[in-house]
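User: I'm curious whether this sequence folds into something compact or stays loose and floppy. Could you predict its structure so I can see for myself?
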Amino acid sequence: MPHEPTRCDTAVGSAVGCVRRSDRGHAILSEIRVRQLGFARSWVPPCRHLPDVPRDHECRVRRQAAKSPRTRDAVLPNFLIIGAQKSGTTSLFRYLETHPQVFGPHRKELDFFVEENGEWARGVSWYERQFDGAGDAIAIGEASPSYTKFPSYAGVPARIKSVLPDVRLIYIMRDPIERMRSNYLHGLAEGVEHRPIGEALLHDSRYIDGTRYAMQLHRYGEHFDRSQFLLLTTEALNARPAETMARVLDFLGVDSSLRLHDLGVRHNAGSLKRRAPRAGWRALGSFLITHPRAARAVPRRVSWLQERALTTRAVRPDELMLTEDLRARLTDLIRYDVERLVPWMDAGFDGWGLLE
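Assistant: Here's the prediction. I'll summarize afterward.
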């Protein structure tokens, strides 16, 4: 009997578990229920370790990407927003969606090229279907910040190259220190972070690695020509949205004279996520995620509790405060990468004031 599709999402801050079914009717972890309850999950085994997914499945997908003929109506993206997380990717994507010559799927982050938590195992045909409504759009793309989370997610540039060799890559970067702080706030709000900010930023390499922009670009530079990149900063997008978006539209080959709607509106801003789940609510969520039968017994209507004072608390300003010593230590950790980023950037790039 053929296995049904299986998917795992192990991204920090995600509330998606691993959905699988067996012919014996084993328990199913419902990602819909988990999302409705507002719980976050700390870890779920990757699907490649589950018996439902053959270990050679990725090899078959790679062969499919390389050899399978495309149907006449098949559509694949010609641009990707590859990151960085908490740097304005949502705003950039939403601005682009208002242009009549640009198409993006309803689900902004497809994560297709991430083996660990994405949809890679579903195959290229699944990816094509996400763009079925593109019509006669000139620029077709998606935005997945997970594409620049090496080494947590390795091999992404090579997978992109195997499917989209001529794709245009947009990478928007933010002041590294502020990006890390925003990422920390995101973790608090999702219930996956509870350590003091100094301990988290200094000792959890994921915060630093996601901010090493030159390191991320180096991996892409091994597979793509420099002409395929457009590098932006969050600060430029916020300060000069019309000018910055005109550059993006020119890069994508669409009419840059058309006016985009809602320029300057910040989507998915971290400043709007200033509440974190209380310890008891977070523990309940973890229990339900690891015990799917118990999760199915929880009424859906309790989801309204997730925004109430009973289950969440306000994030205190001191929880996000960076002392001078902490800022200096973080700057020392990131400065070399910022120096390596300079050759990639336009003349006049000041390195966010972190260069010596």
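Summary: The beta strands are 79-83, 102-103, 139-143, 168-173, 229-233, 275-277, 312-314. The chain has a mean pLDDT of 78.
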